[in-house]
Amino acid sequence: MNSSRRGFLRGLGAGAVGIASGAAVTAALERPGHAASAPSPVFHGLHQAGVVTPAQPHATHVALDVLATDRAGLEDLFRTITERARFLTAGGVPPEIGIAGPPADSGVLGPLVPADNLTVTLGVGASLFDGRFGLAAHRPPALTAMPAFPDDHLDPARTHGDLMLQLCADNRDTVVHALRDIARHTRGGMQIRWRADGFIAPPRPSGTPRNLLGFKDGTSNLHVDDRAEMDRFVWLPASSWEAGGTYMVVRVIRMLVEFWDRVGIVEQERMFGRRRDSGAPLDGDHETDVPKFAEDPVGEAIPLTSHIRRANPRTPASEPSRILRRPYNYDSGVDEVGDLDMGLVFVCFQQDPDKQFAEIQRRLAGEPLVDYIQPVGGGYFLVLRGVRDATDYFGSGLLSLT
Ligand SMILES: C=CC1=C(C)c2cc3[nH]c(cc4nc(cc5[nH]c(cc1n2)c(C)c5CCC(=O)O)C(CCC(=O)O)=C4C)c(C)c3C=C
Ligand SMILES: [Fe+2]
C-alpha cells in the first residue's frame, strides 16, 4: 500500500476496510429478522454490470474529477473503487472497529448491508487522457468531450468529468449508501463534479414505464439478451485494450412540464408518433406493434418530424446508429423562479458515440419536441471492461499501457 492509498483510508481505523462475508454473512442472514436479498448481478466478468442489466428502479449518475496527481495515485483510486464495489454489490456485514474511531459504515442500511441488486459501473472521460497520468497517447479516438448540439443549454457545472460512476439498485437508500461508502473511501482521490439522481416508475398500468411527459419510454430498444445484437452495437470488439467495454452517453435533459401540460393530446402524440395511453405507434393498436414507415412515405399517420421517426427511421442507412437506451426520470425540486425542475437522465450505450448517439441527435435536431425539453448537462464516457477476478481492478488494462 503506498502513501496516497493510505491517505484514502486514513481515519477509517486499521481494520475498517476488511469485509465480513461468506460464513459471517450467511450467519447474519440466518438470524431471525434478516431477510436475504437476491444476489446482485455478478461483479466479475468481461463486461461491467449496469449496461445490459435490466434497469433497477433507482440510480445516481455521478461525474467526478480525479484529485490524484500521478499514475500511482490513479491506480490506488481505481483499486479502492473496485474493492468497495466488490463488497457493496455482494453485501455483507461491515467490520466492527470498536468505539474509538468512527464506525466502518454509515449505518444507513443497518448492520447487514444487502446486495439489493446494486450495480456499480465505472466510466472514464476524455479529460482523464490529458497530461496528468501519462495516458495522452492512449485516448481512443471515439472518446471525445461531449459536443454541444443545437438547442443545448449546457451548464459547465453539470457537464463532462474525468470519471462517471453509475450506481443502480432496487432501493434508493442502497444507492445513497453505496455513494457515501465510495466517497468516504476515496476521499482525497476524487471529488464530485455533478450528480443526477434518477428513478424508474412501475409500469402504469402495464408494459414499459413512463417518463415525466406521461409517455411510455423504452418500448423500442435493442434487446439485451440478444448477444449478437450487443456485440454488434454495444460491446467494444476484441481488437484493443478497451475490449469488453462500451461507451456511455449521459444527457441530463430538463422537461418544460409547465408548457407541456398545456399542449393538446393529439399534438403531444404526433410529436412522439405514439399514443400516450397504450404506447402504440400511431399506425398501430398495441405497444409492441412495429411502425410501418415505408407504407406511409408522407407521414400521414406518423409525422415525418415525430420523435420515433427521426430517432429510428428504420432504413438501411439508419441501422448502424442504433443504441441501447437506459434512461431514468429525475425530479429535482424547483428552480429560482419557481418552475419545476424535472426531466430525463438520458443514458445510452454504444460502440461509438458519434456514429450512434450523435447521429441520432443530428436527426432529432429541430424536431417539434425541442420546444419542450432542454439538455442542460452530461458527458461522454468509456465504460471500462469488467473486473476479471478477485485480483483484478477497474482500469487495470488502461494502466498497463505504457
Ligand atoms: C439521441 C438520442 C435520443 C434522445 C436524446 C432522446 C430523448 C428523449 N426521448 C424521449 C421520449 C421517447 N423516446 C422514444 C423513443 C426513442 N428515442 C430515441 C432516442 C433519443 N431520445 C430512440 C432511438 C427511440 C426509439 C425509436 C424507435 O426505435 O422507434 C419514445 C417512444 C417509446 C420508445 O420506443 O421508447 C419516447 C416516448 C424524451 C422525453 C426525451 C428527452 C427528454
Ligand atoms: Fe427518445
TrEMBL record:
Record bears the keyword Lyase: yes
Dyp-type peroxidase N-terminal domain boundaries: 48-199
Top-level EC class: oxidoreductase
Cofactor binding: number and manner: Binds 1 heme b (iron(II)-protoporphyrin IX) group non-covalently per subunit.
Catalytic activity: heme b + 2 H(+) = protoporphyrin IX + Fe(2+)
Sorted UniProt keywords: Heme, Iron, Lyase, Metal-binding, Oxidoreductase, Peroxidase, Signal
Record-annotated Dyp-type peroxidase C-terminal domain positions: 208-387
Subcellular location: Cell envelope
Cofactor(s) named in the record: heme b
Leader sequence segment: none
InterPro entries: Dimeric_a/b-barrel, Dyp_perox_C, Dyp_perox_N, Dyp_peroxidase, EfeB/EfeN, TAT_signal
EC number assigned by the record: 1.11.1.-
Cross-referenced Pfam families: Dyp_perox_C, Dyp_perox_N
Similarity section: Belongs to the DyP-type peroxidase family.
Role played: Involved in the recovery of exogenous heme iron. Extracts iron from heme while preserving the protoporphyrin ring intact.
Official protein name in the record: Deferrochelatase
Organism: Paractinoplanes globisporus
